[in-house]
Automatic annotation (TrEMBL):
It comes from the Eukaryota. Keywords: Metal-binding, Repeat, Zinc, Zinc-finger. InterPro entries: C1-like_sf (IPR046349), DC1 (IPR004146), Vacuole_Formation_Reg (IPR053192), Znf_PHD (IPR001965). This is Zinc finger PHD-type domain-containing protein. It comes from Rubroshorea leprosula. Residues 52-125, 169-233, 279-358, 581-629, 643-693 form the Zinc finger PHD-type domain. The keyword Transcription regulation does not apply. It holds the Pfam family C1_2. PANTHER family: CYSTEINE/HISTIDINE-RICH C1 DOMAIN FAMILY PROTEIN (PTHR32410), DC1 DOMAIN-CONTAINING PROTEIN (PTHR32410:SF163). SMART domains: PHD. GO terms for molecular function: zinc ion binding. The keyword Metal-binding applies.
Amino acid sequence: MESIDHFSHQHPLVLVDQEPGDQGSRKGFCSGCNQAVLEGYCYRCRKVAEGYCSGCEEELEGSSYGCGECGFFLHKKCAELQTDIINHPLHSEHPLTLRLNRYAFNGCNVCSKSITFFYRCDSCDFDLDLRCAMHPQFVAQEFQKLQHFSHDHPLMLVEDIEFQTKEGVCSGCREPMYKSSPFYCCPNCVFYLHKKCAELPLKVNHPAHRKHPLKLLAKPPAHREKCSCHLCTKSYEGFVYYCSVCEFDFRAADAFLHTITAEIHEHSLTPFSGTISFVCNACGTDGNHACFTCVECNLIFHSDCTSLRRTIKIIRHPHRLSHIYFVQDEEEAGKRECNICHDDINLGYGSYCCSDCKYFAHVNCAIDEDLLEDEESKLSDDLIAISPAFQQIKPGEIKHFSHKHNLILGGVVKDGRSCEGCMRSIPTSFYSCAQCNFFLCKCCVHGLPKKVRHWTCKHLRELFFYSIFHCRYCWFWSSGFGYNCNACNRIMCIQCHEILDTRIVNIEGQEHFLFFDHKYEGKCNGCDDYRYQRSFRCKDKKCNFALDYRCLVLPETARYKYDYHALKLTYRDDNDLSQCYCDICEKTRDPKLWFYHCANCDISAHPNCVLWKSPFVKLGKPFRIDDHEHPVTLVKIDFYPPKCNECGKPCRDDLSIQCTEPDCTYIFHWDCYREHKFPWVRTFPRVLCLLHRD
């Protein structure tokens, strides 16, 4: 069979005439973490999904070169790419060289996409992905050029290539370029303009300012201290229409708002010339600037509210919400609580509601971009329906995705074993495997579906089972079950899933309930840490009490190796500050912060000293990893600890990964192992380290 030696792979690549292997349902899944991936690439494991080209990351079709041993495949056209391009139309100054490392690629200078293969000029820091480098429009130089007043170089019209990432913004309107086509760009300067922004007229006459024409500027006037649009009062960047005589300005996006139609209203709306103080009928908040009015209905609107949608879908509620101007039902009239911020809503003005559930929300709360469901995803109710993670074999016997053997309901638990899924003590009702001493509590089996839509995320989450993973909410290392969002690269442990699923939390000793505030920024009253934003806070703003995820998932009781009794989580210490010490680290404690206490032994300690970073990690369970031949396990060694293979220090009291073979000296501190095996975790903190079970 025909084969080639390619610079991107260590083994010869053999030509095959069809898609390699029997992909079946495995197509589109990462061979490393076994999770479905987006656009053919897994950012956690840095691997291309099965059934995709390892060069351009597109689906494999027709002839391809591949290495079956490594699962590495290239389209025939990708394998035969020329390694150097001289005088490319988009960069004729220097030759472009084909490169391999995706993580040395900042993104294509035209479409911002990142893929494994790309062409690069090191002298100019210029990159092109394969699609743009080989696109017929660019190769044939059949593209329109525009010399725009806002940029020194000619701009190139890109007509049928979509912008790939949400980071790039248009220099005119400062809106994202994501999925935008056509658009103008300057590849050498990484400068972008939407086509509509590039073609804006240089002068306009606007009905809100009839004295003088408004001139288009590339950026706000330098002498203005505060630059805000006279129509919507928003501060602005980018293009602006400006009258230098009157110091009057509009954002370019608002300059052409004359008589308009709005989705939330049946009549045309007319801009009001001048500035007045008013209460917007659409959202119920004040305004003191230009506005739109409906003469027939005697309604007045903010300019932003004219773009409100009649119905929306938010991630906090399962049904669509409809916009209303006021509540006609006398029983519902008056004031209600917003189910997002829990402040009162004046139902005499506009709000969003679900009439079936009596669910109300402020307009500005409901349209927050963090809460609005992504309309592009169009996830149907069928996709978010509860899908069990197990298959019923017969009454009392199941096949669960997390274990290779069947599990049987009932049995005897010895030695205080815990559930493999949630790391809690085994209750009276559980499933077990007689061959492996594998236990799952009934709650984990029946209460955790394989796929869910959680209200903290816009995407579908999938249940997985690993030896150790990092929860991106409480920041604890955990074992067992967790819900993964592949789109966000965020994993949620079961503890956080249960806490957040309640939405409202009651804390012992706290008068008011706590609700989830995704905009909260401040310190946590449990640990006095400012790191954790998006916390649960008290409805009463005068109370100013808030808790982060980490404190909310702290176990009510915990054990420390030098105490026979369980330590209880305590929320306040009435002793004087001079008498508050941690009996583990021997440092002072703040009596206002949470701590663990044993009343029998009069021992108190910081939560971090008792739990360290891994209170939910399963110790002693053997599993396999890619870089060692024997099974390994996670351990904490108290006496006679061996030295870490990486740093050379004893592995005492720290979470470590150790070989299960008695004669093998393989052992690493867990932190040392992550830095040794996954040095890129520091550079790309969203990428998580996952280890495979045997």
